[in-house]
Amino acid sequence: MPAKKSKVAARPKAAAKAKTPAATAAGRGKSAGGRVAGGKPVAGKPVAGKPAAKKPVASRPIASKPVKPAAPAPLPTPQGLVRLLEDDGTVQKGRDPNLPVDTLLFLYEQMVQVREFDRRMLMLQRQGRIGFYGPILGQEAATVGSVAALEPRDWIFPALREGAAAMMRGLSLTEAINQLIGNGADRCKGRQMPCHYTFKEGNYYGMSSVIGTQLSHAVGAAMAARIRGDDVVVLGYLGDGATSANDFHCGMNFAAVYQSPCVLFCQNNQWAISVPISKQSASETLAQKGKAYGMPYVRVDGNDVLAVYSVTKAAAERARAGQGPTFIEAVTYRRLGHSSSDDPTRYRDEAEVKAWEKKDPVDRFRAYLQKRGLWNDDKEAAFKEDIAQRVNAAIAAAEQNGPPADETLVTDVFATVPEPLKEQLAEVLALEGRGVNQGAFPL
Ligand SMILES: Cc1ncc(C[n+]2csc(CCOP(=O)(O)OP(=O)(O)O)c2C)c(N)n1
Ligand SMILES: [Mg+2]
User: Fold this and answer.
1) Catalytic residue flag (residue 196)
2) Residues 34, 176: one domain?
């Protein structure tokens, strides 16, 4: 959580320093004027006749500061899918959120970068150079659009596929690859599962494989921020599969009852490993689960980066104004396996994958940029070359780093290493050079 006492200290160093257009635009409060679609709801009617919060937050037990009077734009109704970009990159008349050009280009850059990063990391995994990887191909808009809608001081509690969020907050590609290798430069010293990043300086909470647990953490962290008087919103992610986990109920319920200043963002990518959404839930939509818990909810086209940005921005503004949490379902698709250990051809139809390829979020957004004269083939080629080189350089740099020192087996647990552990470490060190202490990928 943000550092004690100072609100300013709540701003992550890395994020505050980031030169990314979105970070700077958001910092100046220009990215969407704090309102969806320039002050208008992005779709349909406002949440029908409902006040944004059931009770004034100040009357809630945990409230420790007055509720701000600002009333952000109403959210779109949950019945339909909020969509701004058509498949061909056109925007429906009068519905372009008119984001600043630097924000638009930042969104595109991040989506393309994570796509290339994914492609290369899967190759490294197949070559035995990293042990495991979880790709996000097809879900780039959902992650990038939602993270970009936050202020740099806000916190992110990722689920499984939001590695790009850490990189958007300043985690370097080299550091990310250090984590994937689990080498000595990895901040977790190889103790975390690969592809489970942590990046405290970017207000990015460590990823956990245990499905759903991050939700109660996200909700609680947001409550704690409010008690401390920090002007911080928490964005907590989950997958469709997590809606069946106990922690989903716990997190949603606490969030709504205590009007926690958070946004809970479900990446409905249609699959939870081999379990399709039809077996995950009998609800018509996942979004409507918000209603059961008493919080506003919205369903958005997760392959439409402008729509994702807009609904997340509106939800974050509501939370910031003391009007409580929002549940967002982003409808998207996981085009590759659950992870490098999975073979999706064993449980799903290739035709389904092909159909979703046509809804590609990156192509759709590029078409939009081109129509607006902000992008062209020459820029695309130069940009892709630059990203490829950045990823190459990061791989080369990360692979220079050796494994974690054996001593790290017993550090970071006790302030003073106990005698029995010291003895065990001495035994391990005595094996050094005798070839019995070598691990190897694949895991
Ligand atoms: C509590 C718990 N149960 C089961 C698992 C095994 N598991 C790992 S990922 C996963 C599916 C997650 O699906 P979803 O929430 O839709 O996220 P996605 O992988 O699609 O992004 C499961 C069941 C786990 N890690 N934790
Ligand atoms: Mg899923």
Assistant:
1) no
2) yes
